[in-house]
Amino acid sequence: MHRLTFFLIPFILFQCKSGDRMNFPEIPVQYPQTRKDTVKDIYFGVEIADPYRWLEDDLSEETAAWVDAE
């Protein structure tokens, strides 16, 4: 069993590294503009900013438009 592991680990590592040699076309990614709010909460005396809380409302038209653009 130890011999098998001794040979399998380098083989697996080589296979993971060999993926770097593949030539895939570069596809430019265009991300949508995302609005940031100034929403902040205080938990145990620590102020936490949550600028993307508006995205949590999955029923809003604004969130649906953002998801479609994404």
Structure description:
The structure is a single chain. This protein has 70 residues and is an alpha+beta fold. It is 37% helix and 11% strand. The chain has 2 helices and 2 strands. The protein has helices spanning 2-18, 61-69; strands at 40-43, 46-49. Strands 1-2 form a two-stranded antiparallel sheet. The protein is elongated and about 55 Å long.
Describe how the helices and strands are arranged.
Elements: H1 2-18, E1 40-43, E2 46-49, H2 61-69
Antiparallel strand pairs: 1-2
**Count of alpha and pi helical runs:** 2
Structural class: alpha+beta
Oligomeric status of the shown chains?
Answer: single chain
Query: Can you count the beta strands?
Result: 2
Overall spatial form: elongated
Tell me the helix content: 25-40%
Biggest sheet statistics? 2 strands, antiparallel
Give the overall pLDDT as a whole number: 83
Rg value = 23 Å
Low-confidence stretches: none
Measured by DSSP, the beta-strand proportion falls in 5-15%
For the termini, the CA-CA separation is 48 Å
Sequence of strands across the biggest β-sheet: 1-2
Task: Return the string of H and E elements.
Answer: HEEH
